[in-house]
């Protein structure tokens, strides 16, 4: 595992996702939607060995095996990897960091990373590592959250206090810049979810392990009063609370 950068506390991130493992697939509807779309970008590629980088519970490791692929399941969180191993979703299991992969150059045919690289300290270094371990003629498929994700929640929190509650997500241009050295294509999509009130909305974030902030946890407990104030400040659509995710999908061709 790589050294921990000051801006990203990877141990805390791994812990948050590890604690979410048991119930992750129940609430991780966004991850399942984006992962299915990302798999469709393979477009008949014949590669047999897939690296599922940031595999989580192994939901998509299992999907890849259903397509006849051999799968290396890799995750930073030991709790997630343990869950994946118990489900027997992959052929190999590796605890590790996408920015410092413990794999040889050109050792896999397809790298697949669904909503994981936004937790990396440096997107460029993560993509370079995925490119390094992919064989010539292979594919690197990734999805990531971009700036604008969770903007409704950010807006509501700004009316309650001055703490930073929402993770910093990269602007789309920064993501484009990180891909400039590769032959690639990018797809941008917005996913929107709706909730009847604030509790299931917050639970959906906690359930996918996404409550950790890059800059550290906000100060102050979530009291009933703060929860009420947050819900009152939240923008509504048809009496529901919307939550938006700006998702960028990337396909990089390994030349």
From TrEMBL:
This is Malonyl-[acyl-carrier protein] O-methyltransferase. The gene is bioC. InterPro entries: BioC, Methyltransf_11, SAM-dependent_MTases_sf. SUPFAM superfamilies: S-adenosyl-L-methionine-dependent methyltransferases (SSF53335). Its EC number is 2.1.1.197. The keyword Translocase does not apply. The keyword Cell inner membrane does not apply. GO terms for molecular function: carboxyl-O-methyltransferase activity; malonyl-CoA methyltransferase activity; S-adenosylmethionine-dependent methyltransferase activity.
């Amino acid at each position: 595992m790589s050294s921990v950068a000051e801006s990203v506390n990877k141990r805390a991130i791994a812990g948050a996702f590890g604690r979410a493992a048991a119930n992750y697939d129940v609430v991780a509807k966004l991850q399942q939607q984006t992962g299915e779309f990302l798999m469709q970008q393979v477009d008949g590629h014949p590669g047999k060995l897939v690296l599922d980088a940031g595999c989580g519970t192994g939901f998509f490791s299992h999907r890849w095996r259903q397509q006849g692929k051999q799968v290396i399941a890799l995750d930073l969180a030991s709790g997630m990897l343990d869950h994946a191993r118990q489900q027997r979703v992959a052929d190999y299991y590796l605890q590790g960091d996408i920015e410092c992969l413990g794999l040889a150059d050109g050792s896999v045919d397809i790298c697949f990373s669904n909503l994981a690289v936004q937790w990396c300290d440096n997107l460029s270094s993560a993509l370079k590592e995925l490119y390094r371990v992919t064989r010539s003629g292979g594919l690197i498929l990734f999805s990531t959250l971009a700036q604008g994700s969770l903007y409704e929640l950010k807006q509501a929190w700004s009316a309650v206090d001055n703490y930073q509650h929402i993770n910093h997500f990269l602007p789309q241009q920064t993501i484009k810049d990180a891909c400039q050295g590769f032959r690639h294509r990018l797809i941008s999509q917005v996913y929107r979810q709706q909730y009847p009130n604030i509790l299931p909305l917050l639970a959906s974030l906690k359930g996918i392990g996404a409550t950790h902030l890059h800059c550290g946890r906000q100060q102050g407990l979530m009291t009933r009063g703060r929860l009420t104030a947050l819900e009152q400040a939240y923008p509504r659509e048809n009496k529901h609370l919307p939550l938006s995710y700006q998702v960028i999908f990337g396909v990089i061709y390994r030349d």
